[in-house]
Amino acid sequence: MSEHDQNLPAxxxxxxxxxxxxxxVEGTGQLPARFExxxxxxxxxxxxxxxxxxxRRSERQVAGLFGMSMLATVAFAVAYFAIDDNEVVxxxxxxxxxxxxxxxxxxxxxxxxxxxxxxxxxxxxxxSDEEIVEERHVLRSDDEARQGALEVVDYGAExxxxxxxxxxxxxxxxALGLFAVPLGLQLVGSLGPLPHxxxxxxxxxxxxxxxxxxGGKKRRLMRDPEGxxxxxxxxTLGSVFHVLPEGINETxxxxxxxxxxSVILVRLEESLIKSQRQRxxxxxxxxxxxxxxxxxxxxxxxxxxxxxxxxxxxHQSTFDMTEDCKVIFGPAKRPLPQLKISVDTExxxxxxxxxxxxxxxxxxxxx
Length: 367
Ligand code: FES
Description:
Number of strands: 13
Pfam families: QcrA_N (PF19297), Rieske (PF00355)
Protein name: Cytochrome bc1 complex Rieske iron-sulfur subunit
Membrane topology: Multi-pass membrane protein
Subcellular location: Cell membrane
Distance between the termini: 84 Å
Shape: elongated
Order of helices and strands: HHHEEHHHEEHEHEEEEEEEE
Bound molecules: FE2/S2 (inorganic) cluster
GO molecular function, one term: metal ion binding
Largest sheet: 5 strands, antiparallel
């Protein structure tokens, strides 16, 4: 049809509604303006509609697919705990890949596939496939409409045969219910390990080679970054040492340990030290303090030799080393914790125990 014909008024094609099969308007050969609604094609019955044995077969197939989903979900949960996350598997066309990821992906995929295929097969073989015309109407919420909606729901439940086929009802319930397990596992499992007391202790609290919290050798104070031990005689008046615990590089997460266990070591005139405990926890005026600022955790690395003040470069909190590192300026609210040290038989400085309080931000002092 030409563009000119499309723009012609309906009367020019004939105003009456014609059947699709009647084709062109008699006499002109043009298409009519409107066609009669041809309606739905006649409904073709499926096997299961007339044959109860075929319907039962479909029911078992649907339940089998939901069952497959349940097995795959259980496999997911087992794999989550049973497979080491460092284990590697070799797959054709992919090569070496993480075994746990493969197992979780395949089992979760099968679990979802089982539910999906079961639902599709159920809809195609057992649910009613008769097309229904719903008359359009103005949106309304009167009692009649509500009643109608309930009837539709009832009708849907009836024609899907879920009421008459408990096997499908329960297997679908089981498959969907179990499908929540992987989601919950991911949520809880991905939170990572519990911190226990990791946040309030440092490597200084442990000894080298100790077993079950007993025995072992005290950790020496080691230069950062050289990793060499420090003799008492190395620490002269006015010198500053940045210190890490001996054996820090053998720990599982050295960087995490470092951000908690960093220490600054200086020698003061003993007569300047105001607190007896501070004197007792040092050796001949050599004192060690946590280097982690109690404001928000920056390393407090600036030592003023004349004033014996320690400065944090982030927000200028200032700590007085002669008075147990109390805060004399800035936003920090808590003194830097002191590390109790002594000298071992070979003359090297060692830590007697961990810090008496958590290092870092004053968060620990809240409520
Ligand atoms: S982190 Fe040290 S003053 Fe803010």
